[in-house]
Design brief:
By secondary structure, the chain is α/β, with parallel strands linked by helices. The chain folds into three domains: 286 residues, TIM Barrel (Alpha-Beta Barrel); 97 residues, Elongation Factor Tu (Ef-tu), domain 3 (Beta Barrel); 98 residues, Sandwich (Immunoglobulin-like), CATH 2.60.40. The chain has an eight-stranded parallel β-sheet with strand order 15-14-13-12-5-2-1-16. A six-stranded antiparallel β-sheet has the order 6-11-9-10-7-8, with no helix packed on it. Strands 17-18-19-24-21-22 form a six-stranded antiparallel β-sheet. Helix 1 runs parallel beside helix 2 and helix 3 runs parallel beside helix 4. The chain is elongated and about 80 Å long.
Length: 497
């Protein structure tokens, strides 16, 4: 896999002002200079919430901010023209663009239909509640504002397998449509976690499969993205995406491309490594997955009052077992305060976590917009030192890696550097509790050189002996990132220019 650095270019509480696409275009050069070479953009199509929709309440996937629908022409992020311009501006800077794809459900239907259903238990969707009944379901999506442009496909109850609202009875429930079954292989939470929200796509329906592929190819022809971020993959039959990804990658690359040529990452939200590895097996390893177990290890380490065993940080994580298919991250739009999966990493631990995902030789790390720019909605500032860590990653964190996960509190790793990157090599030491010291191997090439802490936490110069070792220190609850003195001087200048 290529050495890439991704940024999730949005957070949940961005203003509903339609300016994100323009901002992305304006920031493209600065992002590339900061070391970002892949950007995951939010869902670009019209949601049920119109101009205020974050994008996951999918209404019309052919409306990229072009039609008067749901009370707005633009999306929360801007117009179709601005979106395409942002993609082109990012790509012009050598930044690959990942588009967010949500194929699990539809919301904001234009009309209702009478549908025969069987109600299921919310906590066990394999258990029926009573017999067949008729509800009034929001399942007709006809997109009057678009009037058939780009696609004449209209959605009705035959294309869905269930919903959670009976308009006639004005009540919630888990309603499986009669004659339909939940996808056979999905996550087993709640018995069967096919149903998530809205009108659930029936991916066993040939028309649905064909329409999702037709849309995907139209979307690629329109946007010319470099890859995809797939939402909620654990809620869709595992065989569906194996086939869909194969066709989409073949279409995008002319049949000759691999994962590096059209990068795809899926969101499978589970702390259990076994579920992630099973999904990768089921999908023929055609995509990467976000490393959710590692995120929760960060959360545990940051909230355990120094009692987390840092030696076990990578145990049971995708980054630790299959880094080629891992996208490690610290936080995202779902884990930030106020969201459904809130598990926001405390501020003191953020630089530690980012050093771990950005400077190790494992996975394709993803930086969260809210960590890079801050989250004004909640008064959360940008993570201090994140810019430094990104620069160190792009210029100095390379070469052979040596791990020092040998203490419950003070752990670290080194990268020896290589001939292709001047003054490269890095020594990282961190602690979730008390400070400490560790003799670490920086590499024989650094013999006679002194190293300094790029994070500015430690002020001493550490000499590297003839065998390539030095004794490095870290403060309690902190991270120090040691680079050569010359690299440190270059970082000082570049970060202030």
């Amino acid at each position: 896999m290529k050495h890439r650095t991704m940024m999730q270019y949005f957070e949940w509480y961005l203003p509903d002002n339609g300016l994100l696409w323009n901002r992305a275009a304006a920031q493209a050069k600065a992002l590339r200079e900061a070391g970002i070479d892949m950007v995951w953009l939010p869902p670009a199509y019209k949601g049920a919430g119109g101009g205020s929709s974050v994008g996951y309440d999918v209404y019309d996937m052919y409306d990229l901010g072009e039609f008067e629908q749901k009370g707005s022409v633009r999306t929360k992020y801007g117009t179709r023209e601005e979106y395409l311009a942002a993609v082109q501006a990012l790509q012009a800077q050598g930044i690959a663009v990942l588009c967010d794809v949500v194929l699990n459900h539809r919301m904001g239907a234009d009309g209702t239909e009478e549908v025969s259903v069987i109600e299921e238990r919310a906590d066990d969707r394999n258990q029926d509640i009573g017999g067949s009944q008729t509800i009034l379901a929001w399942t007709k999506l006809e997109f009057p504002g678009r009037a058939g442009k780009y696609s004449s496909f209209l959605w009705n109850a035959s294309h869905f397998s269930g919903t959670d609202w009976d308009e006639r009875g004005k009540r919630n429930g888990i309603f499986r449509f009669a004659g339909k079954n939940w996808n056979r292989e999905t996550d087993d939470e709640n018995g069967n976690y096919d149903y998530l929200m809205g009108a659930d796509l029936d991916t066993d329906c040939p028309q649905v499969v064909r329409e999702t592929l037709d849309w995907g190819k139209w979307y690629y022809d329109t946007v010319r993205m470099d890859g995809l971020r797939l939402d909620a993959v654990k809620h869709i039959g595992f065989d569906f995406y194996r086939k869909w990804i194969g066709e989409m990658r073949s279409y995008a690359t002319g049949g000759a491309g691999g994962q590096d040529d059209f990068f795809i990452v899926g969101e499978y939200w589970s702390r259990e490594l076994g579920k992630l590895t099973h999904y990768l097996d089921a999908a023929d390893h055609a995509l990467a997955l976000f490393d959710v177990p590692l995120h929760f290890h960060f959360y545990q380490a940051a909230t355990s009052d120094g009692n987390f065993d840092m030696r076990t940080l990578y145990e049971g994580t995708l980054t630790g077992t299959d880094p080629e298919h891992a996208v490690p991250f610290v936080d995202n739009h779902d884990t930030q305060p106020g969201q459904a999966l809130q598990s926001f990493i405390p501020a003191w631990f953020k630089p530690i976590a980012y050093a771990l995902i950005l400077l190790r030789d494992a996975g394709t790390p993803c930086v969260f917009y809210g960590d890079y720019y801050g989250i004004p909605h909640d008064g959360i500032a940008a993570v201090p030192g994140l810019g430094t860590l990104l620069r160190v990653r792009s210029s100095y964190a390379c070469g052979a890696e040596h791990l020092y996960f040998d203490d419950p509190s003070v752990v670290g790793f080194t990268r020896e550097g290589d001939d292709a990157h001047a003054d490269s090599g890095v020594v990282v030491l961190l602690s979730d509790s008390v400070g400490g010291k560790k003799r670490m191997y920086a590499g024989r090439a650094h013999a006679g050189v002194c190293m300094v802490d790029a994070m500015g936490k430690r002020t001493e110069r550490v000499p590297i002996d003839a065998e390539g070792f030095g004794e490095f220190a870290v403060d309690g609850g902190s991270v120090s990132v040691w680079v050569t003195e010359r690299a440190g001087a270059e970082l000082f200048v570049s970060l202030r220019s």
